[in-house]
Amino acid sequence: MDQETAQRLVDSVPEWHHGFEIFPGVSTPGTYQCASVLERLELPDDLSGCSVLDIGCADGFFSMVCAQRGAEVTGLDYRSREGTGFAVMEQITGLEFRHIRDNLWNLPQHGLAQFDLVLFLGVLYHLPDPYRGLNIAAAHCRQALYLESACETIEVAGKTAGAPLLEFTPGRSWNGDITNFWRPNPACLRAMVEDVEFEIQRELVGPLRMVIHATRAADEMLERRRRVAYGLHPV
Fold first, then answer.
1. CATH: 3.40.50.2300, 1.20.58.90, 3.40.50.150, 3.10.20.880. Which one for 3-229?
2. pLDDT tens for residues 53-97?
3. Interacting residues of 201 by C-beta distance below 8 A, sequence separation 6+
C-alpha cells in the first residue's frame, strides 16, 4: 500500500475519534491523542501469547498497538467496524481482530473466557452506571487491568481531603458533551479499582486525566459479593 491509498482510505471515514499515525506520513484526524495516552499507560513492549480485550475500541489504535506487540486482541464497541475507523485500520495495517459490536452491559452474554489484559480507556465517565461497567471489565480480566479516565478535583463541604467523590454531570454541563455522565476524582477511581479486588501497581494523575495499572488481587471474596449484587458472576 502506498501513502496516497492510505490517505484516501483515512479520508473515507466520516469521523475519527482516535488521532494517530496509521501509515508512514498519514495520520487520522481524531481528537483523542493516542500517542500521549499510550506513553502514560506504559504497556509491555512484548505481548506475545497474551489475550487482550479492548473495551470501547473505537477506531482501534490500542487494539492495533497490542496486536503489533504480539497479542491476540478482541475489540468491543457499540458501533460496527465500518461505523468507526476500525475497518480502515485493519485494511491499512493488514492486522486481523475479533470485533464484537455490542453494548458493554451485554458483554457477559457472549461467553468469553477471561483475558490476560483488559483495556478500559476513556470509557468509565461515559457510562450511566460506571461501577457496574468496571465490574464487567474486572470479571473478564485474568491479570492486568489498564484504566484511563477523565478525573478532576471535587470539593464538597464537610468532606475530608482525599474522599472518593463522583459528581453527576447532567445534559451537556460538562464540556458540552451529552455523553459525559460522571466526573470522578482520583480518590474515587482508586477506590473503585480496589473495590473490585484489583491491586494498583502504578498510577499517573495528570491534568484532568488519570491512568491506573492494576492487577488481580489474591482475595476475591469482596468482588464475588459485588458481582452477585449486580447479577454478575465470575467468567
1. 3.40.50.150
2. 999 999 999 999 999 999 999 999 999 999 999 999 999 999 999
3. 213, 214, 215
